[in-house]
């Protein structure tokens, strides 16, 4: 797959690392190709960097992992997203970004041409995106959105990182719930002081 990653920090960097190893072609969409967080990713195979609009043009899938307060600016910088699948990994932290909707994904949906928008990869720490393996058990991932095609692709991309399964939480009306679920992880990891080496697994019988 050809994947543009906008936001090349903790999350974007972990995703680029995992997917490039699986042979995906990664285009880091950056504001300044000479100086950006994660510039060391360029030493890995299958990863290159270019201006944001160019990265989007070159790709089938666009992943956004910038700070939530930048959502509008980032969406405006994407250019034409017709026919692209957009995956939103962001969370509105802290919850005081008054220019946003109930979730960053709602804001993206309202301000771009693509209707194939999925929220995924936001409910766990970047450390788990880099390595979802806990002993013999691999963590699960979760996703939401109306786009069937978008969710099929997001699910495949979670498997490519090593997640055991990716559960479908529902449609676009579940974007905000996905952010709440992320806060559940953040609360346990940070405020309840369990640390970042924790993750979610769904049990069934
Ligand atoms: N950290 C986690 O464990 C985690 C887990 C799940 C979800 N999230 C969510 O994922 C998102 C990213 O978190 P992070 O920890 O990866 O952030 P981060 O390490 O601070 O990286 C932010 C990235 O966004 C880029 N950026 C900022 N403003 C931009 C703009 N206007 N246009 C284009 N790029 C811009 C920065 O580019 P420069 O290099 O040019 O500064 C940087 O590459 C956040 O919404 C966060 O809530 C984080």
From TrEMBL:
Residues 2-91 form the Pyrroline-5-carboxylate reductase catalytic N-terminal domain. Pfam families: F420_oxidored. This is NADP oxidoreductase coenzyme F420-dependent. Gene3D superfamilies: NAD(P)-binding Rossmann-like Domain. The keyword Oxidoreductase applies. The keyword Oxidoreductase applies. One of its GO terms (molecular function) is oxidoreductase activity. Keywords: Oxidoreductase.
